[in-house]
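Hi P.,

Sorry for the delay on this. The queue was packed all week, but I finally got your sequence through. Input first:
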Amino acid sequence: MEREVRHGPGATSGAERHEAQHVEAGPVVGAGAIVLVEAAALGLEGDALHVLLIRRGHAPAKGTWSLPGGRVQRGERLVDAVAREVLEETGLAVDVRELVEVVELMAPEFHYVVMDYRATLREGLARPIRPVAGDDADDARFVPLDALASYAVTEAVARVVSKALVAREAHEAHQARPLSGAGA
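Then the structure:
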């Protein structure tokens, strides 16, 4: 079904034109980040891991907590989109790591295909690390993993964070292994 998009007096709003373009054009490609950080990097006691969340400032799902991320721009590499979105929404620079999961979000008014990547904070950031909400995020903060449920994140966000934790642990285990034949 095509929607009429009018310009000039009596035209549809920018949001309506934007929605109509995306519904008619098919799925929108998005990219998101799972940023896990130790408490010490945040100036906190203990060794609990925290995940970076943003509170969405715009539809869809305005007011809900989610992972930082957004639309991939034409001609933009996925990893560049992840880094850009995290910087725009939280003010933090990240290095993008491996793809964790592809999440498909569908409703009558939208269809997104989001690639969620594990990301790490860029070395050299001032400590303690404090995200600052920007772009389309109303708030940005690091949340302890054991408090994730109190932020009413979706099942998909909880699942992707869990998978990123497993990937992080596998990466750390691989880094800690001695090289075979070292010193021989």
